[in-house]
Amino acid sequence: MNKNKIIIFSWTAVFLWLVLIFYLSSQPAVQSDGLSKKVTKVIIENVGKVVPLAGETSTTTDLVEHFNHLVRKYAHFTLYFVLGILVMNGFRQSGVIGWRGFLFSLVFCMLYAASDEVHQVFVPGRGAQITDVFIDSFGAFVGIWIYDKGRFFFMHSTS
């Protein structure tokens, strides 16, 4: 694949991921909460197959209520972790490397996280939370860091 196609493919992946984040943030609170509770329930049921749930922990419904907030925050982290990797790759493929690539990727992700929270102010039942911007930014930072260090590791391990 030639370099221009790789660049276009890399930034298309970023764009599609941004669209996914925007779509998820556009869901009204009731719909968003319902989706995260379904995910939380699947996690609890699968963990329950491996680690028996203690009798005093009540029902799956109680556990879903208890862990739903945590799952939502992990979802924020994970979405922006992937975004960080994709953006870092996009900049790298475009020739922006080293500390500039790292910094530009992080700033890009942080600005999108902040704009995403502002967007949620206009969605029924949703609101902006600065803690979500911090979680999103940290997820992006970890993704960017792993991409950067992983490339370094693989470049030197194949030599």
From TrEMBL:
<feature type="transmembrane region" description="Helical">
    <location>
        <begin position="127"/>
        <end position="147"/>
    </location>
</feature>
<keyword id="KW-0472">Membrane</keyword>
<keyword id="KW-0812">Transmembrane</keyword>
<dbReference type="InterPro" id="IPR006976">
    <property type="entry name" value="VanZ-like"/>
</dbReference>
<dbReference type="InterPro" id="IPR016747">
    <property type="entry name" value="Phosphotransbutyrylase"/>
</dbReference>
<feature type="transmembrane region" description="Helical">
    <location>
        <begin position="74"/>
        <end position="91"/>
    </location>
</feature>
<protein>
    <submittedName>
        <fullName>Phosphotransbutyrylase</fullName>
    </submittedName>
</protein>
<dbReference type="Pfam" id="PF04892">
    <property type="entry name" value="VanZ"/>
</dbReference>
<feature type="transmembrane region" description="Helical">
    <location>
        <begin position="98"/>
        <end position="115"/>
    </location>
</feature>
<feature type="domain" description="VanZ-like">
    <location>
        <begin position="11"/>
        <end position="147"/>
    </location>
</feature>
<feature type="transmembrane region" description="Helical">
    <location>
        <begin position="7"/>
        <end position="25"/>
    </location>
</feature>
<keyword id="KW-1133">Transmembrane helix</keyword>
